[in-house]
Amino acid sequence: MCGTTQAADDSGSADEAARQVVEEYEQVVVPLEIAANRAWWDANISGKDDDFARKEAAENRLNEALADRDRFRRIERAYRAKPEDRLLARQIELLYLLTREKQLPKELLQRMTSRANQIEKAFNVYRAKVDGRELTNSRVREILKKSRDSEQRRKVWEASKGVGAVVIDDLRELVALRNQAARHLGYRDYHVMQLALNEQDQAEVLKLFDELDELTRKPFLATKQMIDEALAKQYGITVDELRPWHYHDPFFQEPPAVYDADLDGPFAGTDIVAICRKFYRGIGLPIDDVLQRSDLFEKPGKSPHAFCTDIDRQGDVRVLCNIVPNEYWMGTTLHELGHAVYSSKYIPGELPYLLRTDSHILTTEGVAMMFERFSKSGDWLKAMGVPITDLSAYNRAAARMRRDQLLIFSRWCQVMLRFEAQLYRDPGQDLNKLWWDLVEKYQGVPRPQGRSAPDFASKIHIVSAPCYYHNYMMGQLFACQVHRTIAREILKAENVADAYYTNDPRVGKFMRERVFAPGKTLPWNELTRHATGEPLNAKAFAAEFGGGA
Q1: CA distance 486 to 473
Q2: What is the pTM of this model?
Q3: CA dihedral for 95, 97, 101, 104, sign (positive or negative)
Q4: What residue segments make up the domains of the chain, in order of their start?
Q5: What is the pLDDT of residues 76-87, one digit of tens each?
């Protein structure tokens, strides 16, 4: 009896100690986290030196608090003691993973933050310059999508990659600092560490991507052959003469416009924000307040990309976009607002702060991708009031583009995952060669002969979201799996791939109950099973492009 009483006392003591650790974090660190989020927003909106300086100072204060060794020792003791209360144990586990990464010399943390900020700022202010004229990011995309002049395309593509040469020296230093940090914490390199701290195993992720490579290689090559023939015809050249600048997207991460219908046509003069507002309200997930706090259109100094951020996990959710009326920005805006609804906007407010967020970066990317898909559905657009002249032609083109998009994106993600894994494993190798070796192997795009430039460094994710990109692909698996569940359980749809939802609050109810409600109480694979009845797998993804059921 005494032994049982002592065990119960120890358990109660462990829970109480863990509770005190969590309360201290919420009182001391959370305000610094919120301040850093606000500073990040301001810097990305303005691009001003002062705002970036405030962003860096806020991040340094947060990092200093997370790096506090006494606090980490208390977190570590609570983690080792294994609290009995499930939600408390999960919070301590997450705190341990979060703060372990920061147990580094203060100077090293600050150098990493400073270097990353310097590179991020360079990306924000960089504009491609061709023949003395600056081009916005949207203008670069427009030229690469529409121009039939191969020489103009080459110039614009090369100019878009020019940011790589601007940041390469700083990036090499940042990679070295990140690896130094990883080794300090006992990891082989930064890539291994980042995956481990995000509850993933590098070997298991690479194994999944090997399976995806097998699954997608043949259908991708068949699709690319058709795309190559169409592109060569557009430019009046042979297939053998195609180069990276012929593929419309600067990284060939999206399908080129080689389809029977102009997917951009219906969006001319269309109010993309109004469509998104109507859509999310119709499925029972209104986002009017998010739109009011967001910054949605291009302006000087502003980041040319797109993001969603949850400032305080109390509903202050914002989206940064640079909307122009085309299919790309229709999809992107749906995507970012998908992140917005999977946030403290709809995650239950009664969950503790540490659990009041998405289960994992791959699950929030998956939700965003699931909603993004409808920009390529003529039936969905028609239901949303977008006029389409030839609906059947649009649907045929959009369906093929959707299929091709899955294949093309899966191959692009192979490049990013494997490049970053090898970048951190051996940063001294010829990285330009490594990049183009992977591009040729997985995307089938030939390297430009005679070109020697750090093209890999023009991908902002390598700087600002390191070792993250594979989660987009895993998110796509999650998206297909959740969409299939909705199509079968709610819509009773026979053709899952073409199923869509517009004015059906049952969809929002499903998402709130099966995906959003657990917050971060469940790790990503447990959430996948909770939402769909199965662990994460490629079956639904394969069915999307005819690769299986």
Answers
A1: 20
A2: 0.85
A3: positive
A4: 2-103
A5: 999 999 999 999
